[in-house]
Amino acid sequence: MQSCVTRYGQITLIAIFAFSTALVYAQTGLESNLPEAGFGPQAQSAPTIHVYSRETIIDVLVTDDKGKPVRGLTRSDFTIEEDNKPQPIRGFYEYDKGAPPEPARTLPPNTYTNATTLPANGPVQIIYFDIPCICSYPPGSDPFSATAAGAPIIRAKKYIADYLRTMPAGTQVAVFAYRCDYGLRLLQGFTTDGQPAAKAVDDLVILSAGKPPNGDPIAAADQIAAYVAGIHGRKNLIWIGRPLPVMRDGGVAWSVGAPPDMAFVHRLMDTYDTFAREQIAIYPFNAEGCCGLGFETLRVEEIASETGGAAIYNTNDYKSAVAKVVDDTSHFYTLSYIPPRVIDDGHYHAIKITVDRPGLHLVYRNGYNDEQPSPPDAVLQAHLDQGPMRLGALPSTQLLFDLNMQPKSASAPAPPHAKGAPYNAQFTFDSTQITLTESPDGARTGSIELDLGVYDSFSQLVASRSQAFKITVTPAQYNRFLRAPIRLSLAIDLPHGQLTLHAGLFDIIANKAGTLEFPLAIPKK
Fold first, then answer.
1. Between 313 and 70, where is the model more confident?
2. Rounded CA gap, 316 and 360, in Å?
């Protein structure tokens, strides 16, 4: 056994277990309901994990010469090349807005999930107001400069609110805002009702005397990606302001400083790699009205093409421009293939897609950085107010899980250190979500962490529990591992009264998270 310091500064134990042996409860104090511990030797070996974790997914918008969506294409109509080399198409799906939604899942009593906080499928529209820092900092700065910098955002507010009030039925939209003094805020969660979304935009304050800069724009983009990860399919990010520059192959596509901050560059590469995995297309929105081509125009055009979106600029009819984005993405094709490399190489790879019919126009992301999953972000750790386990933080849906909270049996003796009501928190999640690394002998290992943070009515942390696990799967166990859900439990003593519980599931290898927050009332004895 090995000890480590957790997020809450306490000491916990890493329970090391294999699926062929039982967990040692007496040593760890951990309760687990892992199904079928000890998969039989009859299970056959499966393909390497690369088949499941390295699939490249691309959304393709196909229109005719009149800009109308083209329906009815088949897998054989498409050709994919990566770095000028043809790739077999592994997955193919045609999405149409008229497709029926997935039915809602009924949860057992006392069970909560982060899988129902979002629409099940895309496309969805994410409105993102990226407010210039000069609009809110420093207090007492030149009001003329602040007003000039904020004028395009104020103009964009009107266009966006006007669109939301008249958006087509069934359109799924969420609204975010970022300011350097307070970071990222979710103004309106996903909804098909444009009226509250429009009011949230109307109420957004652009010009104010703000606090010193504390937010991190890359961390904000990462939070949005983690929030929408549970949505299958395309996500359109309508970025009002100045989008983060695209990085290629560790180099600077557009200047970010002289000399460039390479830590900044690699964080941007990681962020855009996450956007690619989560099928997020950026639509840069320049609300300055009609203007000529220039450096900024070329910059936003590249950002749009690299992510599969389109730049919105050089027009005064922005309401119609946003409506066109929604309409154009109501029909698309999703293609996937397995990259030819065994491991991530950290380089940029160009993608080319063609259709064997003349006169069609295709829009898709034209490349990606093949980045290895990065370790937890040191900048995020410094900005604890933006961390995934912060009270009120956006739920992360990169990992989906159910959490069942049950009081322990009254017959079970309470431990001598108990300071409240003993509860059992059971996490249940799909094993295929977990990233495994493969050793030369074919064994696969993963590393996950469960976290619980409990806050009182004064937003004070009053209880916490954290546990890390190492998963080991032999080749003979692998097929059964992929088919069975994983159930793990944490015991925690909860104070009496009205509480808020924040739960987290973390894949340490892939740096992915699933989080959930909900109220919980613990009655007195």
1. 70
2. 28
